[in-house]
Amino acid sequence: MAIGYASKKERVVVASNINIELCKGELVGLVGVNGVGKSTLLRTLTNVQNGLGGDIFINDKNIKHYAALDLAKVLSLVLTEQLMSKNLSVFEIVALGRQPYTNWVGNLSENDLTIINTAIIQTNISDLKHKRCFELSDGQLQKVMIARALAQDTDLIILDEPTTHLDIYHKVYTLKLLQKLAKETNKTILFSSHEIDLAIQLCDKLIVMTPNQVVSDMPCNLILNGTFKSLFPEDLIAFDEKTGSFRVKK
Amino acid sequence: MALSILLVVCFLANISLGSVYIPLNDVFNSLMGNATEQETWQHIIRNYRLPKAITAILVGSGLGISGLLMQTLFRNPLAGPFVLGISSGASLGVALVILGSSVFGGVFALFLISKWSIVIAASLGSFLVLLAVLMVSLKVRDTMAILIIGLMFASITSAIVSVLSYFGSAQQLQQYIFWGFGSLGNLSWDELLIFFIIYSIGLMVSLASVKSLNTMLLGENYAKSLGLNIKRSRFAIIMATSLLAGTITAFAGPIAFIGLAIPHLTRQVFNSSNHKILLPAVFLFGGIVMLICDSIAQVPNSDYTLPINAITSLVGAPVVIWLLVRKRKMVF
Fold it and tell me: Is A42 exposed, middle or buried (0-12, 13-18, 19+ CB in 10 A)?
């Protein structure tokens, strides 16, 4: 698959020759230097923008052939954008995840309520249920948005930089939660992140984007074949293979 | 529930109050179709006060709902029913009829200036602006751009009105200004029927948009990821607003403030952003506030009728200020 931007005048290819396969129950991290095209890849994968070539299949069906509503039943998103209304309660936000399934006024059925409550329990936000969003911390809000994606009941959840704005504890907390959810619910969870060392420790698979190539493999294999060494310009930081993290060059 | 009772009470109070004093049981009698003590009372109630009270409810609720739709669509607490230039379009239509007569010739004008010609001019004006905005909304991707474009349409039309005013005579200007004050009275049952039919279509479309409005509370990208067809929902919402605000402006003039304030009032009182709650509540609040304002504008037992447009702001603005100051936190 090739991604990028096409206009009448020119085609800007951001990355090409991308070949990725995601399996059920996998937590997959997408890492790469700023501006390498992580967001473009995610936008293309979620059908927000068109790819320049190649196809994306979810459950053996081309993403282009999904109706908007059907796509919403197999793919849910957690974005970095601010909520428009911070006055919604946590329960209301999670319940909005059921929108693709509800009738024309959006009434919740028994089944919907069960799924919403399960999502709330799985993300440990039961005690926040009746709080309003402006009362929440960034970490709590992130859990709520993950719960909302869970309530959407999709095979694939894609998160755009879910760990930004969080402290190191909550970064790990959020990623561990994603890891647990992938195992428990057998969903595929893909997230982009700049926390490469955390991703190495927690992910089943990593997609590493560099200007020249996009590779996806298990973290240990990627360390072995030295993919991380070439990830960043080498003047300031270096990858330490023993600890699996980046060190500042003295 | 309490609100619906309050609406009925305000409705009855509005009918009982007016420049002519009519005892309460005679008001009931004439509403029930029984004879009243004086023949004229029955006439006043049935052909003047009753249609006016119904108009007040339609105007108040319709403007409130279209304000709510616009505020949610544009994610902007300052949006109101007229941000898309609907009232400016209507003003332009009316200005062309009233003021333009000096430009287009005098004999023609005398024939033109009747009640219906003003209604038709206002409808045509708002319809044309609406058409332009709708076409833009299908082309433009960014919702905010529609808002700006609406504002641009508004300034173009008001510029034309200014030019027309410059050439208009004093009498014509006065007539135009009086139209701008807004008026709930003077609607015959026939006119009210047409008003009601278009209003109902607008209301229906708004009701059908409740789910997409709630989805939009998450923001446009989330709404899209939930399978919402943004362009179609946006079209429906703009359509509903135009039908509601357009007919209201055509029949009652550009009534300010209600459309902006009622949604805020309702959000503060109900402390909710869920449109399933907000929409009916805005409907009731809009009707109630309009009835109260109209009762005040009548100045009971006197011959004066103050401009309704002034009263809505004079009464409503302090209430909204008070609510916002008291709560300290704006609910949006």
Answer: buried
pLDDT tens digit string along A50-66?
A: 888 888 888 888 888 99
Instruction: Please name each of the domains of chain A with its CATH number.
Output: 29-74+156-166+190-250 (3.40.50.300)
Is residue B315 situated within a structural domain?
no
ipTM of this complex prediction, to 2 decimal places: 0.88
Q: Identify which of B210, B218, B332 has the shortest CB distance to residue A106.
A: B210
**Is B210 at the interface with chain A, CB within 8 A?**
yes
B230 close contact with A: CB closer than 8 A: no
The Cα–Cα gap between B212 and B206 comes to 10
- Rounded Cα–Cα distance for residues A28 and B95 (Å): 64
For residues A84 and B221, give the distance between their C-alpha atoms in angstroms, rounded to a whole number. 11
**Where in the sequence is the domain holding B129, given as residue range(s)?**
83-254
Q: Give this prediction's pTM.
A: 0.88
Contact: A46, B216; criterion CB under 8 Å: no
Would you say residue B35 lies in a domain? no
At B67, the pLDDT band (50, 70, 90 cuts) reads: very high
Q: Flag if A106 and B211 touch (Cβ within 8 Å).
A: yes
Report the chain A residue with the minimal C-alpha distance to residue B276.
A105
Read off the CATH number of the domain in which B172 is found.
1.10.3470.10
